[in-house]
UniProtKB/TrEMBL annotation:
PROSITE patterns: HTH_CRP_2. SMART domains: HTH_CRP (SM00419). InterPro entries: HTH_CRP, WH-like_DNA-bd_sf, WH_DNA-bd_sf. This is CRP-like cAMP-binding protein.
Length: 81
């Protein structure tokens, strides 16, 4: 699930950004319960995956936004999955 969430977040980075900034904010315009369903999971599992990415210093959450604090690290996680 963590890798699926990371892939979703990486897909939110504009493709024109070959060299994205270190920190990028993804504004969630859907409730986390809907995001969980789109990722094929339940909100509790999504919350654990968010916590895992936070513990790895790849993201942080701010209200309804997810701040990608290490875009390259997220891409590496996705590529190695």
């Amino acid at each position: 699930m963590t890798e699926r969430l990371a892939r979703y977040l990486v897909e939110q980075v504009p493709t024109v950004l070959d060299n994205p900034p270190t920190v990028l904010t993804v504004e969630l315009d859907i409730p986390k319960s809907v995001l969980a369903a789109e990722l094929g999971t339940v909100p509790e599992t999504l919350s654990r995956a968010l916590r895992t990415l936070q513990d790895k210093d790849l993201i942080r959450t701010e209200d309804a936004d997810i701040v990608l604090t290490d875009v390259r690290g997220l891409r590496h996680l996705v590529d190695s999955a």
